[in-house]
Design brief:
about 35% helix; about 30% strand
């Protein structure tokens, strides 16, 4: 059974493998991370861990029984009881409810572990799958998301108030 785990230093190889294996799949619906992301991955992984230790962000992985990463589910900009949610799921796990179930689980974790009361997420107009996940996970549209919020694409902001 896949497990939601907080990002650790030893996850680096599995996260990089996940990103590389799914790069083209992700780039079809969200902006590509670019070669620099992959070339400097160890530094980026260390920086993410530092942000997590500082309490600015919380990075979670959905990890399969074999240790491979099925998805990344991240809380950014934790401040005043709110955070921004971002996520991506491996192509082979997409379309089976994995993202929706994990976003729901992360909402519970965000409230219980991080004391968050509200999550926000943005999805581009051409990312129907992400919009569906957010809606099924209890998020409601709150207004337009500017291209600056979504790597050059326009979209919608969503919000979910969390139960303590």
């Amino acid at each position: 059974m896949p497990e939601l785990k907080l990002l650790h230093a030893d996850h680096a190889p599995a996260v990089l493998a996940f990103e590389l294996a799914n790069r083209a799949y992700f780039a079809a619906s969200i902006p590509d991370r670019g070669d620099d992301f992959f070339d400097r991955f160890p530094d980026r992984h260390s920086a993410a861990l530092a942000e997590q230790v500082a309490g600015v962000c919380a990075f979670y992985l959905l990890v399969a029984e074999d240790g491979s990463v099925l998805g990344r589910f991240n809380l950014y900009d934790l401040e005043d009881g709110t955070a921004r949610l971002g996520y991506r799921v491996a192509e082979h796990a997409a379309g089976r409810g994995v993202a929706t179930a994990t976003v729901r689980e992360l909402c519970r974790t965000a409230a219980a572990v991080h004391g968050l009361r509200t999550l926000r997420a943005a999805a581009s107009h051409d990312n129907a799958a992400s919009r569906k996940v957010l809606t099924k996970a209890g998020f409601v549209p709150t207004g337009p998301a500017a291209p600056d919020d979504l790597g050059g694409k326009s979209g919608t902001w969503y919000r979910r108030d969390l139960q303590p």
